[in-house]
Each structure stands twice: as structure tokens, then as C-alpha cells.
Design goal:
The chain is of the alpha/beta class. It has a single domain, classed as TIM Barrel. It is 36% helix and 12% strand. 50% of the residues are buried. The structure holds NADP nicotinamide-adenine-dinucleotide phosphate.
């Protein structure tokens, strides 16, 4: 029976990073942006999430295939060096678009994917959490991306109510460790984890990134973010601007966001992203979009400086 899992909405400064100047011949908008390590790689703080590339419901071909390819190429042209994807976006669609647009990949591009889910014949999200399924998921990602290795792959845990009682977290970690030790992935990431699960995993092996839902109005993962920060591990919030699943309007229409945007001559999305960038140096952004105009707007959030008044108003914002 298909289990609805949450790639749909789930239950939910110190400037230590260094600057990397002027990469890319086009002098893209991310050219002088701060960076933070993601495993063995150091990436710019605004990357790109590929979940919006497939059609509606993250299913099937894009509404506008040419635009989708342009978005991906433009992202890299503008300096994006970190792209988040998944074989189950489409399925296959996001990965195949990335490969078509970018293969052979630029040496500095860090591709990150995730395993733990699949799609049923109707596009429903189903669990694929068992060790053999995690391995199969990594292999499918490599094949559809035409890659020999991925910089990191996130073990995407299901929400507590949907977990498969037949598979333990330790078994999953064992599988991810052997996949990494075989060289199929450069690093292990975790997604949708509790603080206890995070601490347990880092006690067992190196973890290079954590992806949990997090934004101005959804701060449940703050303890995990803080723990990652303490350990120098990248925290990559998903749904940074509220997602495509209905949370976006609450975030972008929030009075603190709207008023700050008006006062600073920025857009609400840029304010939401700039707030995350200012919150902690280990936050790496992967806003998702299928639109060239939105891509450029999102990358330009790196130039938006939130003053003390803005930070106070946004920090006090609640859902
Ligand atoms: N680990 C996980 O479980 C997990 C779960 C979900 C997502 N992710 C990753 O996280 C990434 C980000 O999450 P997300 O894409 O779901 O949500 P998001 O980035 O919070 O929001 C995406 C939504 O915002 C819209 N949008 C983007 N830029 C905009 C702009 N400048 N102005 C107005 N609207 C804008 C997009 O529509 P347009 O296409 O029209 O721009 C889309 O509807 C994903 O792409 C995926 O790579 C991971």
C-alpha cells in the first residue's frame, strides 16, 4: 500500500566561512559569495534544488522542457556549484534533465541526491527504506545522472508514523557506510532526522550534511541545525521558501517578511533566503525553481543584507 511521504509537506555570526572570489567566466551573481564545506568539497552558500524541474506533483516531464534545461544551465553559469536532486523526482526526470543540461559535469559541481523513497504507478510516494533499496536507489541515481560517484547522498528517513518496523536505523547506516566505502558516494547525508538520530549517526560514522525541513515559519529542526553547526556539518534546509505545497503563501505573505522586503527593496523570497543565510554559517541553500526569473532572484538573495531591525522582526515571526 503506497505510503504518502513527504517530499510533500511533512510534520516537519559568526562569518566563519571563507569567500571564494570570481569563479566562472560570466562573473555570475554568486561570484563572491561565502562558502561552507560539504564533505570534502567547499560550496557556495546558495545552490539549486531540482525538485521543481519535473511536471506538477514532481511527476512526469516539465511543463516547459526548454525552460527547465535553461534554468539548470543558467544556474551553473551564475556560479551554482551545489545541486540537490533525487531519482524519484519525476521519477528520473530531474536527473535526466540535469545530465542533459550539464554532462560532462564541471569539475567543481557537487551533486547531492537522496534515497529512501520511490514512486508508485500513480505517482504516489512510497517507502524504499530497506538496505537493498537504499543501494538500488544510489545505483539508479548514478545511472540517470550518468555519474560514477555522487558527492553525497542523503538517507531520507520517513516521518515517525510511516516508518517500516522491519528496518532499523542501524541497518540503514550500515548500508550507507558500505555504499560510501565502495566509493559510490563521497559522503553520507541524513534527511528528516531527529536530534537523537543525528547524534547516533555521527557517533557511528562521518556525516557530511543534514537536510531537514526548515524556514522562517518552520523552525522545529533548530536543535539539529545547532548540533550540525557545533560539529561543522552543513545543514541544508528543504522548503527554504515554504515549498510548492501550500506553505509558501504563509511565509511570503507574512507581515514581517513583506514589510522587510518593502523597506529593503528586496523581494519576500530574497528576505526569506537572506534570513537563513544570516542565521548560521553552516546553512547551505537549495531553493527549488522551474523559472529563470526566480532562479536569478533567488541567487541574488546573497547580496541582500538584513539590518538589525529586519533581523529582530524576522526572528520574532511565527507561523
Ligand atoms: N530531503 C528532502 O526530503 C527534501 C524534501 C523536499 C525538497 N528537497 C530539496 O529541497 C529543495 C527546495 O525545496 P522545494 O523546492 O520543495 O521548496 P522551496 O524551495 O521552499 O519552494 C519551491 C517553490 O517556490 C517557488 N519559487 C521559487 N523561487 C521563487 C521566487 N523567487 N518567487 C516566487 N516563487 C518562487 C517555486 O515555484 P517556481 O518553480 O514557479 O519558481 C516552488 O513552487 C528541492 O528542490 C529539493 O531539491 C528535499
Amino acid at each position: 500500500m503506497p505510503v504518502l511521504i513527504p517530499e510533500t509537506r511533512n510534520s516537519h555570526q559568526q562569518r566563519r566561512a571563507t569567500r571564494r572570489q570570481g569563479q566562472g567566466e560570466t562573473g555570475g551573481v554568486t561570484g563572491d559569495m561565502e562558502t561552507f564545506p560539504l564533505g570534502r568539497h567547499r560550496v557556495r552558500r546558495i545552490g539549486f534544488g531540482a525538485m521543481q524541474l519535473p511536471g506538477p506533483g514532481v511527476l512526469g516531464p516539465p511543463r516547459d522542457r526548454d525552460e527547465a534545461l535553461k534554468v539548470v544551465r543558467r544556474a551553473v553559469e551564475l556560479g551554482v556549484d551545489h545541486i540537490d536532486t533525487a531519482q524519484f523526482y519525476g521519477p528520473n526526470v530531474a536527473n535526466e534533465l540535469l545530465a542533459e543540461a550539464l554532462y560532462p559535469y564541471p569539475a567543481e559541481l557537487v551533486l547531492v541526491s537522496k534515497v529512501g523513497a520511490a514512486r508508485d504507478g500513480h505517482g504516489g510516494w512510497i517507502s524504499a527504506q530497506r538496505p537493498a533499496q537504499l543501494r538500488a536507489g544510489v545505483l539508479e541515481n548514478l545511472a540517470t545522472l550518468r555519474a560514477d560517484q555522487l558527492a553525497a547522498v542523503n538517507l531520507r528517513r520517513l516521518d515517525a508514523g510511516h516508518r517500516d518496523p522491519g528496518v532499523s536505523f542501524d541497518e540503514q547506516l550500515d548500508a550507507m557506510i558500505s555504499i560510501r566505502d565502495e566509493g559510490l558516494i563521497g559522503g553520507i547525508g541524513l534527511s528528516n532526522v531527529t536530534l537523537e538520530e543525528f547524534e547516533h549517526a555521527v557517533g557511528r560514522t562521518e556525516v557530511v550534511c543534514v537536510q531537514n525541513s526548515f524556514n522562517l515559519l518552520d523552525r522545529a529542526a533548530q536543535p539539529v541545525l545547532s548540533a550540525c553547526r557545533q560539529r561543522g556539518i552543513a545543514f541544508v534546509p528543504y522548503f527554504p521558501i515554504g515549498s510548492a505545497f501550500g506553505g509558501q503563501s504563509a511565509l511570503l505573505g507574512h507581515p514581517a517578511v513583506a514589510q522587510t522586503a518593502g523597506r529593503l527593496a528586496a523581494t519576500p523570497v530574497q528576505v526569506a533566503l537572506a534570513w537563513l543565510l544570516a542565521l548560521a554559517p553552516n546553512i547551505l541553500l537549495i531553493p527549488g525553481t522551474s523559472s529563470l526569473a526566480h532562479l536569478e532572484e533567488n541567487l541574488a538573495a546573497g547580496s541582500v543584507t538584513l539590518d538589525a531591525k529586519a533581523l529582530a522582526a524576522l526572528d520574532a515571526a511565527t507561523g
